[in-house]
Predict the structure of Malate dehydrogenase.
Amino acid sequence: MRRSSGAVELAARNDQPVPDSWGVRPCGEVSNDPMQILHGGGLLPLGGTEVAGGYKGFGLAALVEVFCGILGGAHWGPHVRKWMTTSADADLGQCFIAIDPDAFAPGFGERMQEFMDTMRNLPPTEGEKDVQVAGDPERTHIELVERLGGIPYHRNQISFAKEFAEVMCVEPMKVLRTVRI
């Protein structure tokens, strides 16, 4: 699972803890309780705490703020509305960059494939099956969806969607079948 506010919300709905590197409780202490992170806490930068290299993630986060907020003419940092509120327009900016990698490094595709294959062939950390690169988890999920013939949802997600449909006065989604994964 990737770290994002959506991933933390999903963990909360599924009654699952998140890794310690994902967020903090309201007092700023590291927490793996998604409810503490969502209600008054916040996300940690990529890498977590400073000891774990979080300062590198802070730099990446600052770059995203510059590109998407400041350069994009949108809100940034403390000017973006508070998490989980609708008191103001979010006014979130976006930045898209198109790069022709072969303009910088001929043979980029083949070199990149060799890099990804090398990463995938590294020994996994204890308790993990394999090393994955960007796109691998999504590809695995696509295969699961195709095998099941639909998108699997946790029962808590179904309950939340039903409650939300009632609040919004819309027809709730229909569960076609129940499977155990």
